[in-house]
């Protein structure tokens, strides 16, 4: 039986007891099979009810003092709990602690609390499992330490490096590539122009030589 069902059963049982005690003609309470509501009462009526309730508790409680001087209380007529069922114990605590005055948890709230408790338990188990795995992985390294068993394992090897190999190669920009192509083109045109001039000069010299020979 769930907590909600136990509370509803306790409310119905309490309403039945109230109806038997105060009678159907008492207009202090109005109820049905599943729910009872209390009418607004005056301050004097509330104080009287509180006095009657405290008197009821004193009649059913036995106060004792143990060796440490701490005060303990137990119900005299329910001291022997061997014959009580879980429903009887719940009803006893419900009446003595006046649980009907406390806000009742909804079924959704109960489910949420149960889910939160399960999540916390799962998280704790997962953390424990991870810690155990870490310990298991570190244990062989701590006990064996294979690196020092290898030849030259106690020495740290150093490898020479060149600073140029560690520098990232600088790539030319688009502007630099454009200027480079333009300079190459200009140089090519200049070379072609010089070659053309040399050819013309050579032809001119040859022509002059032929004219001189013909004279």
The fraction of residues assigned to DSSP E strands is 5-15%
Q: Tell me about the biggest sheet?
A: 2 strands, antiparallel
H and E order: HEEHEEHHHH
Task: State the separation between the terminal residues, measured CA to CA.
Answer: 141 Å
Task: Quickly give the structural class.
Answer: mainly alpha
Number of domains: 3
> What is the radius of gyration?
52 Å
Low-confidence stretches: 24-35, 62-76
- Record the strand order, biggest sheet: 1-2
Helix content bin: 55-70%
Q: Average pLDDT across residues?
A: 70
Biased composition (Basic and acidic residues): 35-46, 54-68
GO cellular component, one term: nucleolus
InterPro entries: Kri1 (IPR018034)
Protein name: Protein KRI1 homolog
What do you see in this structure?
The protein contains six helices and four strands, in the order αββαββαααα. It is mostly helical and 215 residues long. A hairpin with a 4-residue loop joins strand 1 and strand 2 (36-38). Helix 1 (3-22) crosses helix 3 (86-96). It is rod-shaped and about 165 Å long. The termini are far apart. Residues 24-35 and 62-76 have low confidence and may be disordered. It comes from Acrasis kona.
Keyword list:
Protein KRI1 homolog; rod-shaped; 6 helices; two-stranded antiparallel ribbon; two-stranded antiparallel sheet; Kri1; mainly alpha; 3 domains; 215 residues; 7% strand
């Amino acid at each position: 039986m769930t907590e909600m069902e136990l509370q509803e059963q306790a409310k119905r049982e309490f309403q039945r007891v109230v109806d038997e005690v105060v009678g159907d003609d008492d207009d202090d309470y109005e109820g049905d099979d599943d729910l009872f509501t209390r009418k607004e009462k005056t301050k004097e009526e509330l104080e009287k009810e509180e006095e009657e309730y405290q008197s009821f508790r004193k009649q059913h409680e036995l106060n004792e003092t143990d060796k440490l001087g701490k005060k303990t209380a137990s119900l005299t007529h329910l001291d022997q709990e061997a014959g009580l069922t879980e429903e009887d114990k719940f009803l006893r605590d419900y009446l003595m602690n006046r649980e009907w005055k406390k806000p009742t948890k909804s079924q959704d709230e109960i489910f949420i609390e149960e889910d939160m408790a399960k999540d916390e338990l799962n998280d704790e188990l997962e953390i424990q499992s991870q810690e155990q795995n870490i310990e298991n992985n570190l244990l062989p390294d701590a006990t064996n330490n294979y690196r020092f068993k290898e030849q030259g394992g106690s020495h740290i090897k150093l490898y020479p490096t060149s600073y140029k190999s560690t520098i990232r190669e600088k790539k030319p920009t688009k502007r630099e590539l454009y200027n480079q192509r333009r300079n190459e083109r200009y140089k090519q045109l200049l070379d072609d122009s010089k070659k053309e001039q040399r050819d013309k000069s050579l032809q001119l010299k040859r022509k002059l030589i032929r004219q001189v020979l013909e004279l």
